[in-house]
Amino acid sequence: MTELPGIVGVEKKFFTFEGLTLENGSFFGPVTLAYETLGTLNPDKSNAILVCHALTGDSHVAGYYGEYEKKPGWWDIMVGPGKAIDTNRYYVICSNILGGCMGSTGPSSVDPATGEPYGLTFPVVTIMDMVSAQHRLVRELGIDRLHSVIGGSLGGMQVLSWCYQYPFMVRSAVVLASTMRHSALAIAFNEVARQAIVSDPKWSKGHYYGKSTPSTGLSVARMIGHITYLSDESMRQKFGRKLQGKDDFSFDFETDFQVESYLRHQGAKFVDRFDANSLLYITKAADYFDLTRYNDYEDVLVKLREASVKFLVVSYTSDWLYPTYQSRDIVKVLKRNSLDVSFCEIEADCGHDAFLLPSDRLAGMICSFLAGVHTVSGKGRP
């Protein structure tokens, strides 16, 4: 058997607690979070890094469950022994978000009160709620302060929420290809994706569990989303107007172009691993995200300065889902409040997904940034 190039034997774990009060004021529980850890927590528990996944990610951030697994975790290029987030040095935690469908409590989970999947009786949760659940996990692991919280896209929103909700538990924050609040464009794409799902007759108002799933709607929703993760240049280079397995147009509505075939493949693949209701809930949470709407927003910035939290913000030139101006808005707010922030716009033609692709420049920046975060800095308190 071929030896796998990475950590083998990563274990998915589960943490269950009684529940939490949601941002909407209601109490929801019990809650289970699926999570994974890599590396060793040092004696003073000062080397913990929380990695937050993007929209359709999960807790499997790096390594392999076993020799049978063909692909490693979603950020194996960045997390592992000797890599940018070095598991020989850091204790890395990654959990599946509340509302997800990869082991954490979400709409496909069984409601203990009824014995049936929650479906649309699952409460609408926010990024803040997801972070509140993560906070319970981090404290359960005995960690008072995180060396860093790192995430891209929706993961970056979680990073910013950690800084807002628990400023004295964060030594540093890495925000990749993200935003302080969803734009009208991002909300519009999410709404079209949601309508693709709810318009599928098999969606059955969210009560499709045990029946036929709304695979057509979910597939189209994924196709819509996937377009926003790419860029015009990356699609031009990869596909152009190349035909798929033919020399001329078919003059029907079957697949003619390679880009059509690619999107259909991505949609079909997604149906096999993701829950349609979870996509509805998570995209709505992203749309609700807007740190500037909270009355104590400025007070939190003062606390972040008091805690000496360091920031690294990274954007990509071809990202049209969360363009560079949105990252610059984050940087302006932080600098206006005298916070320690580094910013870099990386030249890349692969669009929003660039942070998930191999990049020596990003790896070098993250490695150097983390090494420069000192555990003795700041006046932090849990």
Please describe what this structure looks like.
With 382 residues, the chain is an alpha/beta fold. It folds into 2 domains: 13-181 and 290-371, Rossmann fold; 186-285, Rna Polymerase Sigma Factor, Chain: A, CATH 1.10.1740. The chain has helices at residues 127-140, 154-165, 184-198, 215-229, 232-238, 258-271, 276-288, 297-306, 324-336, 360-371; strands spanning 13-17, 20-21, 27-28, 31-38, 48-52, 79-80, 85-86, 91-95, 110-111, 116-117, 148-152, 172-176, 310-316, 340-346. β13, α9 and β14 form a beta-alpha-beta unit.
Comma- or semicolon-separated keywords:
disordered C terminus; 2 domains; Rossmann fold; single chain; alpha/beta; Rna Polymerase Sigma Factor, Chain: A; 382 residues
Strands, helices and their partners?
Layout: E1 13-17, E2 20-21, E3 27-28, E4 31-38, E5 48-52, E6 79-80, E7 85-86, E8 91-95, E9 110-111, E10 116-117, H1 127-140, E11 148-152, H2 154-165, E12 172-176, H3 184-198, H4 215-229, H5 232-238, H6 258-271, H7 276-288, H8 297-306, E13 310-316, H9 324-336, E14 340-346, H10 360-371
Parallel strand pairs: 5-8, 5-11, 6-7, 11-12, 12-13, 13-14
Antiparallel strand pairs: 1-4, 2-3, 4-8, 9-10
Helix pairs in contact: 1-2, 3-4, 3-7, 4-6
Shape: globular
Question: Gyration radius, to the nearest Å?
Answer: 21 Å
From N to C, what is the helix and strand string? Answer: EEEEEEEEEEHEHEHHHHHHEHEH
Give the C-level CATH assignment of the largest domain. Answer: Alpha Beta
Helical fraction: 25-40%
CATH topology of the largest domain, what is it called?
A: Rossmann fold
CATH level 4 superfamily of the largest domain: Alpha/Beta hydrolase fold, catalytic domain
Extended strand count: 14
